[in-house]
Amino acid sequence: MLYHLRRGAMTLEELLQVAPTPAGIYSDHLRSHLVMLQDEPQLASALQQVVTADESVQLEAIAAYKLESMGLIQMDGNRASPSCQLYRLYFRSQLGEKKECQCHSKNTER
């Protein structure tokens, strides 16, 4: 992030606005997590619950463990919240209702 600011390629405001999008400086990192989530629809669904909620939520223990191990959520007791605002914004847009339905249809086809 500092590299991009130092180069003068964009302002801090621009960088923060673009960061949670596929064009942002963290896009490779975010997409790698998204690919893993698409392979595990139960995790995608659990993360969707977390990023769309205004407060921390309770998740199934294994899903919470996996998402926390990936660094996507933080646990406070048995309640989960996104580990950072970047993840909340990116995954809220990427794991929308339409994408969730695609994940569930994968499971029903098997």
Task: Describe the model.
It is a single chain. This protein is mostly helical and 110 residues long. Helices cover 64% and strands 9% of the residues. The chain is built from 7 helices and 3 strands. The protein has a 3-stranded antiparallel β-sheet with strand order 1-3-2. Helix 3 crosses helix 4, helix 4 crosses helix 5 and helix 4 packs across helix 6. The C terminus is likely disordered.
A few lines on this structure:
The chain is built from 7 helices and 3 strands.
User: What structural class do helix, strand and pairing data support?
Assistant: mainly alpha
User: Main sheet: which strands, in order across?
Assistant: 1-3-2
Rg over CA atoms, rounded to whole Å, is 15 Å
List unreliable stretches of 5+ residues: 98-110
Helical fraction: 55-70%
- Characterize the overall form: globular
The DSSP helix count reads 7
Mean pLDDT rating: 83
Number of strands: 3
Q: Termini separation (Å)?
A: 42 Å
The arrangement of helices and strands along the chain is: HHHHEHEEHH
The portion of residues forming beta strands comes to 5-15%
Largest sheet: 3 strands, antiparallel
Short key terms for the protein model shown above:
110 residues, 7 helices, three-stranded antiparallel sheet, mainly alpha
What's the arrangement of secondary structure elements?
Blueprint: H1 2-7, H2 12-18, H3 27-39, H4 41-52, E1 57-58, H5 61-69, E2 73-76, E3 79-82, H6 85-94, H7 97-109
Antiparallel strand pairs: 1-3, 2-3
Helix pairs in contact: 3-4, 4-5, 4-6, 4-7
